[in-house]
Specification:
The complex is a heterodimer of chains A (about 80) and B (about 210). Chain A has one domain. Chain A is built from 5 helices and no strands. By secondary structure, chain B is mainly alpha-helical. Helices cover about 65% and strands about 0% of the residues of chain B. In chain B, helix 3 crosses helix 5, helix 5 packs across helix 8 and helix 7 crosses helix 9. Classes of the chains: A mainly alpha (about 80), B mainly alpha (about 210).
């Protein structure tokens, strides 16, 4: 690992999120072509993010939502 | 909408009224508007509470507190942000208050150095993260995967967990997350990166143990 790896490692989430300017993106892309460790780091992080995003698909039991609605409306009516 | 009440407008125009219509209707005293707001966003707030606290009862308490507070102060909601962002701001505060009351989850910092690629003594480390697109049978079923991720998330210090949930689970932008938590955008980015690295480590550890017993 060299100092370039460390510098880019700190920005890799922003790179994946598309939050970096074009120049820095180009530098990171160029670095990734020559650095298998950073490519591995990027890919494993990309998969991790995607797995976390899919947690959003989790559904709550409809009975829980109905209970919440009832409790909120009752509390407001008292 | 001149000369027509918001409630009437809502009834006429929409089985799916906009948030703005619902807020206006609520201000005119519509109980139906409150019901629709809870139906529309209740699932997301419950899920957020569940992921933050890990217990359904706590999630229900947080959600109830969130909507009660929202309806009490909805008159002062000026629409500078989306209604859902405002609800998440209230829910985030409720989660942090509940955590402080319990005092069983000390906040700690996660060092970036621990996750550097190929750090000394760790040459050639390969992370065992399943490909999310490889299909449900490739590694383990969906239910088991959720359990692994849920457990990893619960091990995250709370001020990292809340950022990860808002950004990667709920899909808020960096700016929106900063606004919801009342912290800087840089703090959101820093915490998110470290939270993701932590999650990667925990998920990988699980699959390494599975692979090598």
């Amino acid at each position: 690992m060299n100092s370039e790896c460390r510098t880019y490692f700190e920005r890799i989430s922003e790179f994946l999120d598309g939050e970096l300017d074009r120049d820095l993106c180009a530098k990171i892309e160029s670095h990734l072509q020559d650095c298998p460790e950073c490519r591995e780091c990027l890919e494993s992080l990309r998969r991790t993010i995607e797995l976390c995003r899919r947690m959003a698909e989790e559904e709550i039991d409809p009975g829980v939502l109905a209970r919440l609605k009832r409790a909120v409306l009752e509390a407001l009516n008292h | 909408m001149q000369g027509e009440s918001v409630v009437n407008h809502m009834e006429k125009t929409a089985s799916n009224p906009s948030d703005e219509q619902l807020v206006a209707s609520f201000r005119e005293g519509s109980a139906e508007a409150m019901e629709i707001i809870v139906e529309r966003y209740g699932n997301r707030i419950l899920r957020f509470g569940l992921k933050m606290c890990g217990h359904l009862q706590d999630a229900e308490d947080i959600s109830q507190e969130t909507f009660l507070s929202a309806f009490r102060y909805l008159d002062s909601f000026r629409g500078e942000t989306r209604l859902i962002n405002w609800l998440f701001k209230i829910a985030s505060r409720a989660c942090m208050r509940k955590r402080r009351k319990k005092k069983d989850e000390p906040d700690r910092e996660i060092s970036l150095d621990a996750w550097l690629p190929e750090r000394p003594g760790d040459e050639g480390r390969s992370y065992q993260i399943p490909d999310p697109d490889a299909g449900p049978d490739a590694h383990l079923d969906r239910k088991e995967m959720k359990k692994v991720i849920g457990e990893a998330m619960r091990q995250l210090p709370p001020h990292y967990r809340i950022v990860l949930n808002l950004r990667d689970v709920e899909g808020f932008s960096t700016r929106e997350t900063a606004d919801i938590l009342e912290i800087s955008e840089q703090a959101v980015k820093t915490r998110l990166h470290r939270a993701r690295l932590f999650m990667r480590e925990k998920i990988s550890e699980y699959f390494e143990e599975e692979a090598y017993g």
